[in-house]
Specification:
Layout (H helix, E strand, L loop, with lengths): L2 H42 L2 H48 L10 H16 L6
């Protein structure tokens, strides 16, 4: 047998091994799926599963109802706050405008004096 024939046989074996592995895997997966389906059917027919399913449905309904109430409350409170704000805005339009008074220069001078006095409280003599 030549080297080329040996290489060709090696490729054939590798190919057939791959096909065999795929077939074996498919068969094993099929058996596994059948076993899982059988177990699932057994569990789904059990009382515990049915009770759990009912509890889950009830919990979902309660959650939906709670969420609806919460959303309604938030919307109503937001609308109420907006209407209060809007009423203040409308009433502010009707109020007379007060002119702003400029601050006197004496005040800023006294502030500066206070700042410089407080600076002296922290001397570097320590």
């Amino acid at each position: 047998m030549s080297n080329e024939d040996k290489i060709a046989n090696g490729f054939k074996k590798a190919f057939y091994a791959g096909v065999g592995a795929a077939a074996f895997t498919a068969e094993a997966i099929g058996k596994g799926i059948d076993a899982l389906a059988k177990k699932g059917e057994e569990v789904s027919n059990s009382t515990a599963f049915k009770e759990g399913k009912e509890h889950a449905r009830e919990a979902a309904e309660e959650t939906i109802e709670f969420t609806k109430k919460t959303v309604d409350t938030v919307v109503n409170e937001s609308e109420k706050k907006f209407n209060e704000w809007k009423a203040r805005q409308d009433s502010d339009k009707d109020a007379p405008v007060n002119e702003a008074k400029p601050e006197s220069s004496d005040k800023s001078t006294s502030d500066e004096k206070e700042d410089s006095a407080s600076d002296s409280d922290y001397s570097d003599d320590e």
